[in-house]
Design goal:
Order of helices and strands: HHEEEEEEEHEEHH
Number of helices: 5
Helix content: 25-40%
Structural class: alpha+beta
Low-confidence stretches: 102-106
Mean pLDDT: 86
Radius of gyration: 25 Å
Shape: elongated
Strand order of the largest sheet: 1-4-8-9
Largest sheet: 4 strands, antiparallel
Number of strands: 9
Distance between the termini: 98 Å
Number of domains: 1
Amino acid sequence: MKIPRPRVQPAFTLVELLVVIAIIGILAALLLTAVSQAKGRALRIQCANNVHQLGEAMQLFITDYHVYPLSLNPGYWKGAYSEHFTSWDAALENQLSTHFPRKGWMEDPKSVRHCPAASQPSDWPSDMGYSDYGYNGYGLFSLKGTNVLGLGGHIYNHATGSFDPPVAESEIVSPSEMMAIGDGFVGNNGLIQDGRSGLWRADDDGDSESTKRSFARHQGKANVVFCDGHVESPTLQFLFTDTSDAALSRWNRDHQPHRERLAP
């Protein structure tokens, strides 16, 4: 009697194995990309919520005093504009602690004062603070000028660093189109400096590394709360490169583009 031989299952060829490995690699890459994008969206949403709460603190200040906080107020220690404290963020801290007591809201790394997607670089100068969020105190501002078109005050004193007098609520021509507080970026013509307590468009000491960090924070966008309280996420290209009326007028309280203030 002839004994049947067991059937041998055909093995994968080397080409087939390579194809399977390649497919698994592609699927893994797609999964990692999706996870990274989902995490980025979550951080951007959390940041937008922080910016919204800073906007609420600003609205509380306006309700109490009918003016916008000064960007800087070095005269505070001599009794000047005492409700503005020493700076816009100190004034907003006081508003939040007064209306909604939150001990250490600025120091807490999870507080509304800190963007969850921002981190201070290891080589950041030790004598220079890193700010996650900035105030549109200048608007489009000529570095040689003194008149300010933002929210931080009317006249900027180069010698003292002070802004005064405060900008009245009624002076904002289009509150829904006027940017107030957002990710702390300063830049122009493709170069952006992060970690600033200002949000303004001007030539600064931005370099390729700071620009790279800025674009990476929210996938090339910035979270911004406007004077009417709504939040948007415009692209950094729109904020710091675009020269259309729509892009430039959002910086200024008179809602005019003021191209003459852009550096050549």
